[in-house]
Write the structure tokens for this entry.
Amino acid sequence: MTHTGVSPQKKEIVYVRNATNRLLHWTMFFSVMVLLVTGYYIGDPTLILGAGEATDTTVMADIRLIHFIGAMFLDVSILIRFYLAFFSMYHRDWIELMPVPGRVIGAMKIAASYFTFKKPPFYLHVDPLDGLTFLALHLFMVLQLMTGFTLYVHALPTDWWWTQLIHVMTDPVTDIFGGDQNVRLIHHLMLWIMISGIIVHLYIQVAKTIIWRDGHIAAIFGGYKYRDVK
């Protein structure tokens, strides 16, 4: 009979995520959900049609406002998460997100375990595959935010001082991608990449929870997961 690596019944509970880490995770999650839904509408506004005179139809304005608020929450969450990765008093995990050779090899072994069902070593916080996945998703979110601000700034009055300040940061983005149309295309493409990344991330966490019974999903709610007792 093939050994599937399913965990034995003997477990010990270990604390892996503090309240700040969990709060940031869920703030990012709900911010991204809001951004995906409102962003899809902005890209295809015929999904919801307003009624009456144009001055009374504020669906797009409301959706853009909600989209912007979601972006602000995501902005702040990413900045705090970046800070804590280097200066957290609980767990400075920046090295766990870096694609150094050892972590890349570890990520490949963990990816292979989903095909062989051989349980990988226990990692207290994030395993190498999760770390590289988080890094990729955060980089995609940063790119999404930069392209989003590049598109947003065009709707602001040009004589505002903070509009000019935003232009200093966003105009290079337009130059890099060769025009606003390409920026819009990249921004829209990132939406589908983020959706795909979230689906893969959820699948991996559910698979680990079911196959290895380590409580990976529970950890993001309560902060604890389970380790095998030998």
Notes: The chain is about 65% helix and 5% strand. Confidence is low (pLDDT under 50) at residues 1-7.
